[in-house]
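Dear support,

Our group has been running a series of protein-ligand predictions, and this particular one with adenosine-5'-triphosphate is the one our PI (initials K.S.) wants archived with full inputs and outputs. We had some confusion internally about which version of the output was final, so please treat the block below as the authoritative record. The input we submitted was:
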Amino acid sequence: MELHGITKRFPGVVANRDIAITVRKGTVHALIGENGAGKSTLMKILYGMQKPDEGTIAIDGEQVAFSTPGDAIARGIGMVHQHFMLADNLTVLENVVLGGEKLHGIGAKARKKILEISDAYGLGVRPDALVEDLGVADRQRVEILKVLYRGARILILDEPTAVLVPQEVDALFDNLRELKAEGLTVIFISHKLGEVLKVADDITVIRRGTTVGTADPRTATTKQLAELMVGSELPSPETRESTVTDVPMLQVEGLTLLETGITAVPQVSAARVVSPSDTYVHESAEVGRKLLDDVSLTIHKGEILGIAGVEGNGQTELIEALMGMVSPDAGVIRLDGADLSAVPVRKRREGGIGYIPEDRHRHGLLLEAPLWENRILGHVTEAPNSKRGILDLKAARQDTERIVREYDVRTPGIDVTAASLSGGNQQKLIVGREMSHNPKFLIAAHPTRGVDVGAQAQIWDAIRDARREGLAVLLISADLDELIGLSDTLRVMYRGKLVADADPATITPEQLGSAMTGAASGHLEGGEQAEQSAQPEQSEDGDAR
Ligand SMILES: Nc1ncnc2c1ncn2[C@@H]1O[C@H](COP(=O)(O)OP(=O)(O)OP(=O)(O)O)[C@@H](O)[C@H]1O
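Confirmed final output from the archive:
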């Protein structure tokens, strides 16, 4: 595939400028660049979601132009999105076939095809498994199978490893090698430079919308890649110091939350017409299952407590219970000694809880609102947004400008919508906002997800600085290097329970990865390689450990 002179302008921003990339058949081609560099825009162009203002795309020497993703799919391009797009309540087969019925029907032929593809690339997909029963890595394989089923020969993978534990990353890379061996081509977008060096055959670096160079993964180091990306040396975050005190800030005792299974399905009976006043029923077969099972923990002033766990093991529910978004069935939550049980979300925020949510689109931002309104979001009653109970828009706007500056949010201004920021820049805005209110306790769910190495170091620094001032942090992260490196204390969550604890100074990501899948409980002993202490600092070769 050859891209030539691709340019795409948005109001106030040139997202892509004269991009030129040649992707060789049968290779993994990595695309790297800092937040807002223009990677997603380019991929959207390639997948027919956006039209370039200028430039050409050629596949196998033939020029193509896509108006819709359908056009791109027809030409053999498949996209595996970062957020999976599968229907949970359907089987793997149903998900794969859905929308592709014309290809191989919905019956025996479809099943045969799915198994053939699965075998050919070592995907190990079970057609009759229900998607809701699958783990993250399996879901990703279904997504890959889904695009292969539609005849993709070029696969675009957008940060595919962000949600995987180390063992799963290795398995994914094996799958990619199989794809290559069969002559397929993979475009791989990632901020994890170590992984890029491991899996890529070619690397293209994009900076400020344009291709600034290529790198040879056989000889390049992560430090060189990072410098190509940002155009200067990376700031190096300081090393860890212990600031843990013996003053409890957050105390959680016996927190239990049961699955209610309440779904918005009216009680339907054949004999009568459903009216809006009909009661809603418990639909889930798992009513009564413990989403949180007797969770107790204490986080002290100046302490970061990290929770490791595969997504879906109760982390979301724990956060929601702490924020007051769900009411637990049992248990007590105390912040700085005060019982939070009957305190609504807004009061919890005003009481000093900062919240970096795991899903920034659902809980962190109003996408269609401008940046300055997003600065106010969740902090309407607090300074500088509000003075004596009255909104102070001028002050809020000024403070938005400050956050944009201090957190290096790349934007043409504070009046653009949050939706127009790149993913990493949205994250920087949220982190900046939450840190601005000097929280006593911070819930940080994947605080650096989607941000580039430079911004990652900056966010780590901001959290560490606040910790030095006494901030207590609950850190949830799928990035095990980050989790191990930042945390003072580590706990493992599995099926709603805190099943194990580990010493971040000695545990390795691999050991933690195994414990997360339920393979260990109690106190985890660190292994030999852990001697060098893993923490998110820039190591010799600039990789984040
Ligand atoms: N729909 C849009 N409207 C206005 N500006 C946009 C739009 N989409 C992207 N941009 C801008 O284009 C630039 C490139 O964004 P893009 O999302 O392509 O970056 P990225 O390299 O994928 O970043 P990240 O690593 O943070 O995901 C950014 O400045 C962004 O704000």
